[in-house]
Amino acid sequence: MRQILLSFLLACAALRLPAQDYPLTADSQPQPGVPKGSMSKFVLPPGKYYPCTPHNYSVYVPAQYDAGKPTPFMIFLDGSQALGNSMRVPVVFDNLIAKHDLPPMIGIFIDPGILPAISDADQNRYERIFEYDSLTPRFAEFLLDELIPAVAKSYNLSKNPDDRGLSGVSTGAVGAFMAAWNRPDQFHRVLSFIGTYVAMKGADSLPALVRKTEPKPIRVFMQDGSQDHITSPEPFGSSAFGSWPINNQVMFEALEFAGYDVKLEMGTGAHNTQQAGAILPDALRWLWRGYPEPITVHEPAGANQPGYDTANRVFSTVYLDKPWEEVGTFNSLFSVTAGRHEEWGGLNSPTSLAADSQGNVYVAVATDSAADKRILRLDPQGKMTTFAEVHNASPAPNPAQIPIPAPVLHMGPGDRLYAFTPGSALTNIATVGNAGSIVSWSIANGTAGDEKIHATADKFQIADGVADGVVDFAVTKSGATYALLSSKVVRIDPSGAVSNALEWGRLQGELGPPARIALSPDQSMAVTVDQFTRYGWSFQIAAGGSLVNGEPFYRLETSDAISTPAWADMKGNPAEDTNGMVYFATPLGIQVAMQNGRIVEILNPPLPGGGPLTAITFAGNGDQNWLYVAQDGKLFRRPVKVTGANAWTVVKPPKPTL
After folding, report:
1. What is the reported pTM?
2. What is the CATH number assigned to the segment(s) 2-287?
């Protein structure tokens, strides 16, 4: 109803109200006695993000600049326009800095790149839409890796994200917002004028993504006009891409819903910078108000009001004031706290995590050497020890240095740790079991004991005696194991007997080879992750143990980054809580799916702009209310308001929302 009313009001404004005049105020006029900053022009040579494409940029330096102090700065996209007569950013900076309404700050004015034509008979390639109107991190990385370092060679730029702002107009507003959205560890302030949050290259999807995603510490000032791409015969938008006024309002409401510090000034103008130039001084005051107080995340204002729907939202799962904390680094040195550390030479990023009922977390890692892999144990106090080792007594030559996979871990009933220990064509790996075995150990005394071999690779035949490798597996309360192979799922009962549970050929054309498998809290369903599509599949476990009635049940949000589609980087197996919510590790973060298949929450990864999440698990002493993830060779955790499901307790989840 609110959206219908908004559309009606916008239509009425376009039909009845003439565009308002927006004269520049005194803050946009040169004032006597005000110190004036300097302007310099530069050319940024082509780099790796936009090959063979130079960029023109200018730098404003305030008269009050002190090279001995890190200086705040703002980057203005479409820099020449921001320097022009309609916005006059340097003049506004001079005046507001002199009034102490802004801290002394540097302005960087970057123009979009133009790829020069090979000959005069050819047309240039104009990069503006590609650079600005994209949801990928490319433009943010361009700013961070190429533009900012170039400017920092001459000026002392602050590295504090609270000291860094971005401004954009139209498509540039999308570019500015996305740079902050993709790298909130680097940028905390955004000016968005007549933002193009419409269906050009995906920006129309941002409001839904903002609503689902854990809020980021970004402050956003927005402006648009009721006649932006509006004509009398087309009151809801004269463009095939959508309505600028409506979509700006929807974007504003999404940011407000998620808890952002956001403001929208809706005027009566068209798609131009007249209103933006007129309100720029006040917009900057609002954006930088309270400086140098940090910009922090907060819940929406109505979160504690009667009737507010608190179900199925980010803060029903995580705590506002309890972000990710690092509990270990797996490089040349593992360190938990000062004064308590151990050397784990050459360890790489954890690829599998499991947790027992006592709150211990088990970490599978591989060293740089093909001869050694380890299963480490992190106790609730943060002490790391070796639980089990996988040795290669006489490795074969490995000139290509092909990485040797670390074990795949899952905790089973009776606090037994299960592991698949991969073999290799280039090595002769010997373990406490055999190469290519699924083995388990009792966790008693914190070391591997009471070894039991459940199955070996020669039992997983696919054709002509060739063993089919285990990709992942899941363990039931009874001790049965569902092993995910490259061509099928097999069931291994506690006696070691192997039977086929599912073959991909039955779902040919729909299901690609799954990458991970997990069980529902009542162990009546299995969830798999398709390697080639955006879907997670749900299977029912039949009375005889086979997987039946499969459906592409979970529709995941995808990343626009071409090299890292969501399904390709789901390294960590899905985890489930006792409510039946499924937690998928993706490039966008941890996507939380309701029992009905809808993605309702996206938890931010610990390291914005970092690599994929490589492992995920719930852990905790009895209640499993900590969530652990691995990213970029580091292990992180945070407390959660839900309880993780486990193999040794069967819990019927509540009926889902339909």
Report:
1. 0.90
2. 3.40.50.1820
Q: Which of 41-45, 263-267, 555-559 shows the lowest mean pLDDT across its residues?
A: 555-559
Query: How many other C-beta atoms lie within 10 A of the C-beta of residue 43?
Result: 10
How many Cα atoms sit within 13 Å of 540 on the Cβ side?
Answer: 5
* Percent of the chain topping pLDDT 70: 82
Q: How far is CA 566 from CA 66, 305, 400, 485, 585, in A?
A: 45, 36, 28, 21, 9
Q: Where are the domains of the chain?
A: 2-287, 325-639
**Model pLDDT for residues 553-571, shown as the tens digit of each residue:** 999 998 887 555 444 455 5
Mean pLDDT of the residues in the chain: 85
Q: What is the 3-state secondary structure (H, E, C) of 425-461?
A: CCCCCECCCCCCEEEEEECHHHCCEEEEEEEEHHHCE
Class of CATH domain 325-639: mainly beta
Whole-angstrom distance, CA of residue 376 vs CA of residue 384: 7
Cα 502 to Cα 410: distance, rounded to the nearest angstrom = 21
CA distance 558 to 529: 13
* Range list of H helices, 213-343: 244-258, 274-287
pLDDT in tens, 59-109: 999 999 999 999 999 999 999 999 999 999 999 999 999 999 999 999 999
**Torsion sign across C-alpha atoms 643, 647, 652, 656:** positive
**Which whole-number Å values give the CA distances from 406 to 66, 425, 527, 615, in the listed order?**
52, 15, 23, 12
Q: Do 191 and 221 meet the contact criterion of CB atoms below 8 Å apart?
A: yes
- Tell me the chain's radius of gyration from C-alpha atoms: 28
- How many of the other CB atoms lie within 10 Å of CB of 296? 13
Q: Determine the residue type at 228.
A: D
Neighbours of 130 (CB within 10 A): 18
Q: Which long-range contacts (CB under 8 A, 24 or more apart) does 544-547 make?
A: 545/480, 545/491, 545/493, 545/499, 545/501, 546/491, 546/499, 546/500, 546/501, 546/502, 547/482, 547/489, 547/501, 547/502
Supply 371's token pair: 């001869």
Contacts for 425 with CB less than 8 Å, ≥ 6 apart: none
Given a cut of 70, is residue 277 above it in pLDDT? yes
Highest mean pLDDT among 10-14, 359-363, 469-473, 618-622: 359-363
The residue ranking higher by pLDDT, 309 or 153, is 153
Beta bridge partners of 518: 527
